[in-house]
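Researcher: We plan to redesign the surface later, but first we want a full-length starting point. Tokens attached.
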């Protein structure tokens, strides 16, 4: 049969489509992930992989798509997350994978965005998460010892690991199945523990690696901070800097699983921040030394909702000074600066994955790292390690200025497109703007517990708190009677006896005959505490009530499962006729939790079971008080935060869901000196909030709110004024740019290939729905200060405002070239100039 040309053309096209489809299907079936000494290899291609940690339970499912999209826009290839065992298996064999714990949904959203996943199964995770991610019931498995060559522990760990791997396989989520998971992790930062416990730790490491590899996921496994990770498991680095890290075998890639973008906040501690310039410097330095995988821990920190924060006095906020803040907004300039860094690294990727660098000296404290491939690709990293002085170096036939503590990237070994110390991305001023929401409060006093209550347990002596509560609540009441004879001398002398209580932590309220006698609490460095006060006692029977308060469970340390919480004694009464009486071994009654918790006062239904007071009868600044109110959701879509600075310590709920623990009464201590990006960073550098509450603002997810009739409940332990509580919107009020002339800049790959690099520009853009309404400041010359605090320097172009007024007012975004002719000429010839600008968004 003869076919005409049109029919033949259709058949050929159909055949080509079939071939294309067949090759696509085959590529999915035959997808591979492996590694060599240079990099992770995905489907036969070496990759420089840029990753960021986003922990799914620390945000809401409604936030996930936008967080993932911002990560992709920021230049990431991979989303990394732990798996949270205690959230998924709250009791043995009973699993939960819903709402914020819907792991499969989270991974599929990452896949839909076109990103990969690094799944850190652990199941020990640390992460400043309650009990390091372990479920509390695990502590009470007979014969168990955590993270060692212990059969009960290994059996439980293997069962959960197999559960997660089986779920991932069933959903076809590993890369070899066409899914996004390219790597998994077993254990977590075990190396230091292994060193302490010796042979049992080494045996456990070997077992864990063999168990994981035996699950046949088809993707590599890693162990972080584990120098002796058995083959084929890859050992990786965690820390602020990892340029000197070397894998334990020459055929393994150099990987950095945690580049700490900031640090966690502790109640009572100052808030750590880490400059964007230093993070970029650390990444560029790692890459120039042969690194091929970098993960930012955290990229979005989020919130420790409920009681999920660990027992080292970790705050509810887990913001971590991450590129995306706890509200889900880009932290500028950090997010944008790292985005620009990622573009420069990706332009250099062909050379980076093809060869080891040649290192040459460029000065006393400067060097160049040059990568050249056989195909002709070339990339250079020019580094200045001096912490004080900028230098000009010669590389090839050109001169390059290197600011202190910085690295300049040349993706073609000629053209500087990025310097780690020069911020091309905009900064912004974000403020909490009060919403038009008025609260009308009602109060209810928590009833004092009694040894006669039905749900009270009586024991001889003092018992450890978590043994009794199983961490179902932060609170445990210890109650006992103290008999005082009428002839006691102190009743006549007025010299009250001294009550001393030793507790393993974390906070303690002491009541004598129903009256608060005092409060003590520990801290991150020492959670243990001692109460020692003279107390008022009367002749006859005196009721002593000790309300012990846990602030989460320990998450790190050798055999931290053995660490205690609560009043363990001794408890003594000194100053009696008999001398000192030891109360520790007498009968004690125990009541788990608060009566308000049992009545579920944090819910609308439960709150109706008691009588509340309001108006002039409202209780203020009294301990152990519940407050409730209702409110309508503020208009708009800005993230919301609750100002709790007028309160002391307790917990907060919105529509029955726990925002977390509040503790603004714990004032931040430490040093908050001026911050300089240059020099080695530590968590004691660049701290803020000294003399203020460690955490004032608490994230209120909009997805938890209804249009009207939202139910807000606060339990206050210390005493506070609820009238000071306020709801506010997280709002961008102004945006800034601070750009040097001649600063390395490059917007598109094509510009580099064509040899066309544009002059630097000051870019400004307001959030969606806002426009630039005013130029608050503009100066071309030698301005000083930072965003929100710019000021003119010794050199200033009089027409600095004109270009921004003309190009930016009334627009959502704009850009202005940094060049003398744009601002009416050079105001100080021969000097290095820049432009600083701040614009209001409205």
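Model: Full-length starting sequence:
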């Amino acid at each position: 049969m003869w076919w005409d040309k049109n029919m033949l053309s259709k058949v050929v096209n159909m055949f080509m489509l079939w071939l294309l489809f067949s090759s696509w299907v085959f590529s999915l079936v035959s997808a591979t992930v492996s590694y060599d000494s240079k990099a992770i290899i995905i489907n036969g291609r070496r990759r420089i992989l840029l990753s960021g940690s986003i922990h799914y339970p620390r945000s809401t499912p409604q936030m996930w798509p936008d967080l993932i999209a911002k990560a992709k826009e920021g230049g990431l290839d991979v989303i990394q997350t732990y798996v949270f065992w205690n959230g998924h298996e709250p009791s043995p064999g009973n699993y939960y994978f819903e709402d914020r714990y819907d792991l499969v949904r989270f991974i599929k959203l990452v896949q839909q965005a076109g990103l990969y996943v690094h799944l850190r199964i652990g199941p020990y995770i640390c992460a400043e998460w309650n009990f390091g991610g372990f479920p509390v019931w695990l502590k009470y498995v007979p014969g168990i010892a955590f993270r060692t060559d212990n059969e009960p522990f290994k059996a439980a760990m293997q069962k959960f690991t197999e559960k997660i791997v089986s779920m991932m396989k069933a959903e076809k989520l590993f890369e070899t199945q066409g899914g996004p998971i390219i790597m998994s992790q077993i254990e977590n930062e075990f190396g230091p523990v292994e060193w302490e416990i010796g042979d049992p730790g080494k045996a456990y490491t070997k077992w864990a690696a063999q168990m994981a590899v035996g699950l046949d996921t088809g993707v590599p496994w890693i162990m972080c901070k584990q120098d002796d990770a058995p083959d084929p498991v890859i050992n990786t680095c965690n820390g602020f800097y990892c340029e000197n890290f070397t894998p334990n075998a020459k055929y393994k890639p150099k990987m950095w699983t945690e580049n700490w973008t900031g640090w966690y906040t502790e109640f009572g501690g100052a808030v750590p921040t880490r400059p964007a310039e230093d993070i970029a410097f650390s990444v560029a330095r790692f890459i120039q030394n042969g690194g091929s995988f970098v993960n930012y821990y955290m990229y979005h920190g989020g919130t420790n909702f409920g009681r999920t924060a660990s027992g080292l006095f970790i705050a509810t906020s887990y913001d971590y000074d991450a590129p995306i803040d706890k509200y889900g907004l880009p932290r500028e300039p950090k997010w944008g600066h790292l985005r620009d860094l990622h573009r420069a690294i990706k332009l250099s990727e062909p050379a980076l994955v093809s060869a080891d660098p040649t290192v040459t000296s460029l000065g006393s404290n400067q060097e160049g790292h040059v990568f050249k491939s056989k195909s002709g690709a070339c990339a250079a990293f020019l580094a200045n390690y001096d912490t004080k002085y900028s230098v000009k170096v010669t590389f090839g036939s050109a001169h390059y200025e290197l600011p202190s503590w910085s690295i300049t990237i040349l993706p073609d070994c000629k053209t500087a497109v990025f310097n780690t110390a020069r911020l091309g991305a905009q900064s912004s001023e974000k403020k909490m703007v009060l919403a038009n929401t008025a609260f009308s409060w009602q109060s209810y006093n928590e009833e004092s517990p009694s040894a006669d209550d039905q749900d009270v347990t009586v024991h001889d002596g003092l018992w450890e708190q978590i043994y009794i509560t199983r961490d179902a609540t932060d609170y445990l009441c210890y109650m006992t009677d103290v008999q005082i004879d009428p002839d006691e001398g102190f009743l006549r002398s007025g010299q009250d006896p001294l009550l001393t209580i030793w507790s393993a932590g974390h906070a303690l309220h002491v009541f004598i005959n129903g009256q608060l006698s005092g409060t003590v609490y520990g801290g991150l460095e020492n959670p243990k505490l001692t109460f020692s006060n003279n107390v008022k006692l009367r002749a006859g029977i005196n009721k002593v009530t000790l309300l012990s308060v846990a602030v989460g469970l320990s998450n790190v340390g050798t055999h931290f499962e053995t660490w205690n919480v609560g009043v363990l004694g001794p408890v003594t009464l000194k100053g009696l006729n008999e001398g000192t009486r030891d109360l520790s071994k007498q009968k004690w009654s125990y009541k788990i939790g608060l009566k308000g918790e049992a009545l579920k006062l944090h819910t609308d239904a439960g709150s109706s079971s008691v009588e509340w007071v309001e108006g002039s009868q409202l209780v203020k600044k009294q301990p152990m008080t519940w407050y409730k109110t209702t409110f309508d959701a503020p208009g708009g879509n800005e993230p919301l935060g609750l100002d709790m600075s007028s309160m002391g310590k307790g917990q907060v709920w919105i529509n029955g869901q726990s925002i977390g623990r509040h503790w603004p009464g714990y004032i931040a201590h430490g040093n908050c000196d001026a911050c300089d990006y240059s020099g080695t960073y530590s968590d004691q550098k660049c701290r803020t909030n000294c003399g203020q509450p460690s955490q004032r603002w608490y994230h209120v997810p909009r997805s938890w709110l209804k249009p009207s009739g939202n139910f807000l409940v606060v339990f206050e332990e210390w005493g506070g004024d609820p009238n000071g509580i306020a709801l506010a919107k997280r709002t961008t009020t102004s945006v800034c740019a601070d750009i040097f002339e001649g600063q390395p800049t490059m917007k598109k790959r094509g510009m580099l290939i064509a040899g066309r690099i544009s002059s630097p520009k000051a870019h400004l853009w307001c959030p969606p729905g806002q426009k630039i309404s005013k130029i608050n400041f503009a100066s071309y010359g030698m301005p000083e200060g930072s965003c929100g605090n710019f000021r003119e320097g010794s050199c200033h172009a009089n027409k600095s405002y004109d270009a921004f007024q003309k190009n930016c007012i009334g627009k959502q975004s704009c850009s202005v070239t940094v060049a003398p002719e744009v601002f009416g000429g050079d105001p100080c010839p021969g000097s290095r100039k820049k432009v600083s600008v701040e614009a209001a968004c409205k």
